[in-house]
Write a sequence for this structure.
């Protein structure tokens, strides 16, 4: 019995000695690399597009307006229109939907004693125009715009003699 015990003890000691022999250490898995938490990237503004509504003085006018709410709170309006008379045209944001008279909320071009924030819509000899303006948040906030109670009007004339609205683009939520 003593021989069996001695043999078993010898095997256990030999295995322990071999398991702990130099150079045969069990490898410790490398520590998992961690990266600092990063905020997700800011979403790029997604524009929405509305069709223009032609006025009585330009019944064949066509076009669209792209509305982009920027991350800084401003809103960019890009108007593309065809079928207007060549030259410079005043344009404004009115505080009323298309088809309804409303006061000028933001003069893009000057209106009376209100200074404008942009340039006129310049229509080429082919009757087309592409105009862009950025509306600062302190002039018209994105929350105000989302009410759907505003529209962009392009007038028949210039700052001095605006004339009737020839096209309207609803600023929709």
């Amino acid at each position: 019995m003593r021989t069996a015990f001695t043999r078993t003890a010898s095997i256990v000691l030999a295995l322990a000695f071999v398991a702990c022999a130099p150079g045969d250490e069990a490898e410790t898995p490398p520590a998992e690399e961690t990266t600092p938490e990063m905020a997700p990237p800011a979403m790029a503004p997604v524009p929405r597009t509305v069709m223009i509504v032609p006025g009585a003085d330009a019944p064949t006018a066509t076009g669209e307006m792209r509305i982009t709410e920027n991350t800084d709170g401003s809103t960019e309006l890009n108007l593309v229109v065809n079928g207007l008379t060549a030259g410079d045209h005043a344009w404004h944001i009115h505080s009323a939907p298309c088809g309804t008279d409303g006061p000028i909320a933001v003069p893009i071009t000057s209106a009376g004693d209100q200074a404008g924030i942009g340039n006129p819509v310049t229509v080429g000899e082919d009757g087309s125009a592409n105009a862009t303006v950025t509306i600062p948040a302190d002039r018209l906030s994105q929350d105000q715009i989302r009410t759907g109670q505003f529209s962009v009007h392009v007038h028949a004339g210039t700052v001095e003699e605006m004339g009737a609205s020839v096209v309207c683009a609803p600023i929709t939520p």
